[in-house]
Amino acid sequence: MLVVLTGSPARGQEDPAPATLDVIDIWNHVRKKPAPSDASAERDYREPMKAWTPVIGAKPSAGALFGMAGNVAFFRGEPQTTHISSLVVSATYSTKGQTAILGRFIVFGNTDAWRLDGDNRAQWTSQNTYDLGTTANSVNVTNAKFNFFRIHNTGYRRLRPGLFAGLGLHYDDHSDFGPGDDVTDDQWADSPFLDYTAVHGLPGDRQISAGPSVNLLFDTRDNTIDARRGWMASASYRGLIKNFLGGSSGWQLLRLENRTYKSVARDQRKRLAFWLFGEFIVAGTAPYFDLPATGMDMFGRSGRGYAEGRFRGERLLYGEAEYRATLTRNGFLGMVVFLNATTISNLQNDERLFESGALGAGAGLRVLVNKHSRTNLCFDVGVGKQGSYGVYLAVQEAF
């Protein structure tokens, strides 16, 4: 039905904003399923909110990639006193035989009395390996195949509103290393991975990092899926113990992070988001694939413009700013523009933080999949130095 209204609003007034529209509304319209007169009032907060999307892409190391990704959001208590919880899952397969099953979650208990964060992965995959530091040239690259299993889970208890303290368990297992497609035996023998492994006396067949962490978190964000206001600050100290759960070496990692969100319009249609984190190995030697690296954060969204693991080293500092805007008044379409910067050390060559860096920049589109959880389908394109670029499809904001 098309309704045409004539006339103009009074001077100084705007037409009232239309009702928020998401993919579910469009799907219901196609199915000719009537929408309730007040969806937010009639919806049971205990009902999970789901958003699913196909994953289609391609990259040289994997070939054509396809699968499914989804977000399930839910409340464990009254929305007035409990933050929304989120589970992001995906399963993908590539034409070069790579398989990945990922599950990441942030779950709040009733009245936010407790919180559980998890990053769990099973991957039969490959990754390009480079020398350490942000001066590493893209010419010196060797593709490595391996199996990767991760279990990172942290439980928090609320100390006061917004403030949590917790303990975590972290386990990373990389095994069955071998040269990627089209990599010769000589290239593999001189690969950055094997060079680092030999210098530090690590096993060449399987490398495990395992140990506990202590964590402090302050979080005032209104929504962890698509924050529009508030900020988050966290500190984590991780002790990886040799021989614990098969640990290959003993080392310690300090991680500090801050995220801030600010509206630049009264109706929150335009916002700025800032992300800063640092990862610092303060003692011991980490296996190559467990060193701080771009794209290896919980949701794998840092360093857009570069491939996963493009920059790696003993110490990492990362910053990103993103401008977010809603393109349509009904909230269905949005866009982002982002700029990020990375600096990483290479202590083997005396390269320190801030002696070199890597910039990345790009833009993306947003499609509102579920208005109740504020879950967006995100499509981003990023570029970096030395001709690097990346295309990203996700069901949740980068940060």
List keywords for this structure.
399 residues; mainly beta; Porin; 16-stranded antiparallel beta sheet; 4 helices; 16 strands; disordered N terminus
Q: What would you note in describing this structure?
A:
Helices cover 6% and strands 51% of the residues. The protein is mainly beta and 399 residues long. It has a domain at 42-303: Beta Barrel (Porin), CATH 2.40.160. Strands 1-2-3-4-5-6-7-8-9-10-11-12-13-14-15-16 form a 16-stranded antiparallel sheet. The longest helix has 8 residues, at 23-30.
Summarize the entry for a quick read:
This protein is mainly beta and 399 residues long.
Topology:
Elements: H1 23-30, H2 39-42, E1 49-59, E2 63-74, E3 85-94, E4 99-108, E5 114-130, E6 141-160, E7 163-179, H3 185-189, H4 192-199, E8 206-219, E9 230-240, E10 251-263, E11 270-284, E12 315-326, E13 333-344, E14 358-370, E15 375-384, E16 389-394
Antiparallel strand pairs: 1-2, 2-3, 3-4, 4-5, 5-6, 6-7, 7-8, 8-9, 9-10, 10-11, 11-12, 12-13, 13-14, 14-15, 15-16
